[in-house]
Amino acid sequence: MKNTLLSPDLLRQVFILALILLSGFLIIGEMLPYLSGVLGAITLFTLFKGLMRKMLDRGLGAVTAASVIILTSIIIVIIPLWLIIRLIFSRIEEATKHSNTFIEALRERLKALESVIDLDFASEIQPQAINSWVSDNLELLLGSTFQVLVTLSIMYFLLFYMLIYVKEFKNWLRQFLPLNHKTVEMLADEIDQIVRSNALGIPMVALMQGIIALLGYYLFGAPNPLFWFVITIFGSMIPIIGTALAIIPVTLILFTSGHTWAALGMLLYGIFVVGTTDNLFRIFIQNKIANLHPLITLIGVVIGIPLFGFLGLIFGPLLLSLFMLLIKIYTAEYGEMQEEGEEDE
Quick one: DSSP state of residue 177? Predict the structure, then answer.
């Protein structure tokens, strides 16, 4: 009778593997709230590794070069974002203080339209509900300050060591990934191209859309055009919502101020001019940087936002592209092995 019992060595192997998987799940589960810090470090590393290499070639020490890069990223990324967010919050708080006046003006303007189109819009607007929603969401955002600080700390901690120990990091990946050298290089190139495409392409598209929208704000007499220019840039980077985040409020402000034709012009300009340039700029820029198909970007962003938050704009398309690349690699490697086996027979 054949012995079907597992050998002690195999049992130990299974036990150790189970411990590794359990530990991995626990670590990943605890790190999930700060996953954006890890992804942010990967993004900044991809963008700045070329600069790191140049500084090392010129004789700078690894620690000094990494410190310069981190300081540079804080100056050109973190501080401007912090100032812009402060500006947006201050404007929103100011707007909520005068929201009743604005909403009443909007209701009066809508009542004038109700007699023409025979629809009741004004009664559906609840000022208290709107104010309550804005206040609750502001408190929620402000309450996440501690998590943001921890995420930034993790991001820069990882970035520092990734820059200093870049060779060791690559060797570690090659050692532990069960893939051949060529496949690892293919994955690294794919990650590099897609991260660059989205990390550079998305802000560039948003900036161009903001400039196009800014011309419209000046043309139709929108108040605070530079503020709405900033909001347009942020909105452009958010899927589905897009530039409507700025165009609709500007249209409503013009409408409640009695500038009906300017409001209509602003709305049409936002839909047909600003909206159209989004597709044109996105296809042109992202194809130039990484030859990334727009459909991969769109589907990837839809998948990535719920998984990774704001950084899903970058890592959603990356996840989808890597999935397709792994299928291609599997077919190439194991398809060849199967063909060789058939030839041997």
Answer: S
